Amino acid sequence: MKSTLTHLKHLSALSGAAATLVVLTTVPAAATPTSTPYVPRPALTAQASASSVRISEEFRISGESHDMPAGTPVTLQQRQGARWVPLPASVNTTPQGTYKMRVVLGLEGRNALRVAGGEAVSPVVHVTVRP
């Protein structure tokens, strides 16, 4: 900083008028990261055919899989307390990446459900079961 001020004084004295100081700086180039191929993460969607059903009434959970091989098994899970419990509802994804399963719930109230498979978990869907 001192050398910059010294040069500024010399420039000012030499020109006798206003001096303009241009300081050029160089920034070291960032290290080039090693190239790693992009690997998409598997994903699942889920939707219920009904938001409210009677106890023991059948409804469907359907959705799509993304970046998963055809035939990947997906399982319905239900939130019970603080845990996600797998239910006996499991199907394989189709060659088009879709799935559809029939579901009958016996737990009254608002049920939180999701689908898991192929290292992916769907967003939660809610279905209310009434008497």
From TrEMBL:
Q: Does the keyword Signal apply?
A: yes
**Organism domain of life:** Bacteria
Keyword set, alphabetical order? Signal
Signal peptide interval:
1-31
Protein name, as recorded: Bacterial Ig domain-containing protein
The species is: Streptomyces venezuelae
